[in-house]
# Entry
Amino acid sequence: FCALFLLADDGSIWRWIVRLLPRGAHNHVDLAGAAAWRTLVVYMRSLVLLALLNAAAMLPVLWFADVPLAVPLTVVIFLGSLIPLVGVLLAAALMFAIAFVGNGLVTALVLVAILTVLVQLLGNLVNPLILGRFVDLHPVVILIGV
# Structure
């Protein structure tokens, strides 16, 4: 419910929080909040783009391996890529189960290995480039930060 109220809010909650602080700090806090919000928006956009790249790269692999439910699995990989730490693991587990039942153990293991390599490559090479460009930082700084 809080998320709904925050999404429907026109900024009055933020203005109320700023008014709680001393009057001399209002402008600084408001500017800092706006900068933080812009950074969060940029981070979320880069996260969605990376999730889309993960899913788009896995779809041809799933088709080539003739895995049943390739398109729904691609959607699960996309959604799983949006959830930090555990999302891709859960998507990989579901992909493994479906590939194991439909195509056997070897195919399932190969697909999990491909997904693991793909996520690592995109996460450690492409994501710093994307995020670095969005937030105007060098990709090495992004890698060190992560």
About this structure: The two ends are 31 Å apart (CA to CA).
